[in-house]
Amino acid sequence: MQFRDLQKQYQSLKDEIDREIQTVLDSSNYISGSQVVELEEQLADYVGVKHCISCANGTDALQLALMAWNVGQGDAVFVPDFTFFSTGEVVCACQATPVFVDVDPATYNMSAQSLEQAIEKVIAQGGLTPKVVIPVDLFGQPADYDALLPIAQKYNMFVLEDGAQGFGGSIRNKKSGTFGDIATTSFFPAKPLGCYGDGGAIFTDNDEWAGLLRSYRIHGKGESKYDNVRIGMNSRLDTLQAAVLKVKLKAFAEVELDAVNRVAQQYTEGLKGQVVTPVILQDFYSSWAQYTIQLKDSETRNTLQQFL
Ligand SMILES: Cc1ncc(COP(=O)(O)O)c(C=O)c1O
After folding, report:
1. To test the ligand 1 pocket, which listed residue (55, 59, 85, 176) has its Cβ within 8 A of the most ligand atoms?
2. Is the pTM of this model over 0.90?
3. Contact yes or no for 141/109 (Cβ under 8 A)
4. How many structural domains comprise the chain?
5. Domain range spanning residue 109?
6. Atom of ligand 1 nearest to the CA of 137
7. 162: which strand partners?
8. Beta strands 182-186 and 200-204: pairing type?
9. CA atoms within 13 A on the CB side of 288
10. What pLDDT, in 10s, does the model give residues 21-45?
């Protein structure tokens, strides 16, 4: 199914998007054009962090963060058991071990109680070092950081916020992208803020990690272009995608995020009593990557799916 009407959205922003794309075509600066740095500054400002490091997609964003922390063999990385594949995939790509943690049945986000149980179990078993927890801001709602962060702190673990679906969400006006020691997002077209291809970004206040992330995303770059000081990746955001995102970020912040919340409210009022509607915690704001409902069994689900 179509999560977002991308064609309609394009038509409403067409003049500005076409103009921005034409500017890139006229300059032929397809890699690392000025639009990339401009976008990174705008994104850092919007989210409320010191550094934004754009990259090729939300999966690379997660992996780059784990690389910056030198996560590898023998490290346990705690991930929710209900998420997109990438959250666990990147852990294995770094040779670390993913440990799956139950989600809360109401919000579908990582349960703090289950996290602590999983950490204790890993410690009791021995062999792995609990190193990172990756809460996911599923469907647009931030994970319950009030409960999760103290646990990560207690066990001296890094928090990597997977905000691939959560861009624009917030808790008491503090935005998704600020809860983890490092946070990531995805600009896959269907995401709350999507580009016209693949794209991603990483957010952090830490200067040292920001420097490492900028190096890792371009082949472990050192002082100059052909000075490669570590094994990295080729994970730049294309200038064309940055140009599109600049226009879309403005529309997202000024109009779309509120509009999508109004529509979600209407759905919830209309569906009340018929199906289980999404639970948004008090003081939490969702960017509604998806509006999900629960039905009583798979047969009812399949019938409704077919009808829709
Ligand atoms: C929770 C979550 N994490 C990571 C990703 C990966 O993002 P990308 O598709 O940009 O690599 C996604 C994308 O669907 C996601 O939903």
Report:
1. 59
2. yes
3. yes
4. 1
5. 6-249
6. 1
7. 136, 184
8. antiparallel
9. 19
10. 999 999 999 999 999 999 999 999 9
